[in-house]
Automatic annotation (TrEMBL):
It comes from the Bacteria. Pfam families: APH. Residues 28-248 form the Aminoglycoside phosphotransferase domain. SUPFAM superfamilies: Protein kinase-like (PK-like). This is Phosphotransferase. It comes from Shewanella corallii. InterPro entries: Aminoglycoside_PTrfase, CcrZ_PhaseVar_Mediator, Kinase-like_dom_sf.
Length: 319
């Protein structure tokens, strides 16, 4: 299709693209689409991102731009060339190579990860069994973690409080199925608090630059390096928040799990971490995913409740 086909439904897009030298006859193809944005290949060298509003639990567009530019300045993200005044549209560098061997997200349950952490991490991992992709992923994670801190800060305790308040706020007008789902999750408040306490004890107050959404779909390959995209949730937070996302969503075998935990956490400055603390961080990640799914259900209707059910099944079973 051509760029002109997007103009009728996107106010100001024609002017924004024209300022960058792209006009109505420019060829456009969609690269990806999600709940918060759509991405289009514009010509052969640029990516046009069309944003939707973030929900209240995001970090905001201003923070996102600052985080993206900081990462791009160190070669950890594609270059960001232009941003519209209202943050509706971004223009960035196009990288043709993705990560085909790791492109599919694989959700890892608490039980699966527990086996990897508790049964394998006591053994010495053979470095020769670790792929070049894993080395590139570690380099990206450590590089991001050493960037200057974003202004936006949120820790797991604050995020859990924010989510609880939001869920209680929507419960009053929720459907019966959504109410039951909210009650099911909030019934585990004590357990969630214990997981967060375990995380915080491991991190000892250390806060770093966290992307917070380093799932495989947000990684691009540039030669032998990986770059991150989508900095909507970037913030300063504890490193276990970053690690948990990667462990929960990447296709990692037992050796890769233990290798990444060791090299990332020691590389970032946490040398005496325990497998149970890492497991607690992944459980917390799935709790927050459940919260997000429930709030999406409140906003979009109960048709999205299966997302909650899917995430909830990845938590440890209630004893």
């Amino acid at each position: 299709m051509t760029l002109a086909e997007l103009f009728p439904t996107h106010t100001g897009l024609a002017e924004f693209c024209a300022s960058a030298g792209f006009f109505s006859d420019t060829r456009v193809s969609q690269l990806s689409g999600g709940l918060s944005n759509n991405n289009y290949l514009l010509g052969e060298t640029r990516v046009l991102r069309v944003n939707r509003n973030l929900d209240s639990l995001g970090s905001g567009r201003v923070n996102e731009i600052k985080a993206w530019e900081t990462a791009a300045g160190k070669g950890l993200a594609p270059a960001l060339y232009d941003v519209s005044k209202g943050y509706e549209y971004y223009l960035s560098q196009y990288l043709s190579d993705g990560c085909p061997d790791k492109q599919e997200m694989q959700q890892i349950s608490a039980e699966q990860l527990s086996r990897a952490l508790l049964e394998s991490c006591g053994d010495r991992v053979k470095e020769q069994s670790i792929s070049s992709h894993m080395h590139a992923l570690l380099e990206l994670m450590l590089g991001l973690g050493r960037l200057p801190l974003p202004e936006y800060r949120i820790d797991a305790s604050k995020q859990w409080q924010t989510y609880q308040q939001a869920l209680l706020g929507v419960r009053a007008s929720a459907t019966a199925p959504l109410c039951r789902a909210i009650d099911t999750l909030l019934a585990r408040q004590v357990q969630v608090s214990d997981w967060i306490t375990s995380m915080e004890s491991a991190q000892k107050g250390l806060e770093i630059f966290c992307h917070r959404d380093l799932n495989p779909l947000n990684l691009l390959r540039a030669d032998d390096r990986l770059m991150a995209i989508d900095f909507e949730y970037a913030c300063q937070s504890g490193p276990l928040n970053e690690l948990a996302t990667v462990l929960a969503t990447h296709k990692l075998n037992h050796d890769e799990v233990c290798w990444l935990c060791h090299h990332y956490l020691t590389g970032i400055g946490l040398v005496d971490w325990k497998p149970q603390q890492v497991l607690a961080s992944v459980n917390t990640y799935w709790v927050f995913s459940c919260c997000w799914a429930l709030l999406q259900s409140a906003a979009k209707g109960d048709s999205t409740l299966p997302w909650f059910e899917e995430f909830y099944q990845l938590l440890p079973r209630v004893c």
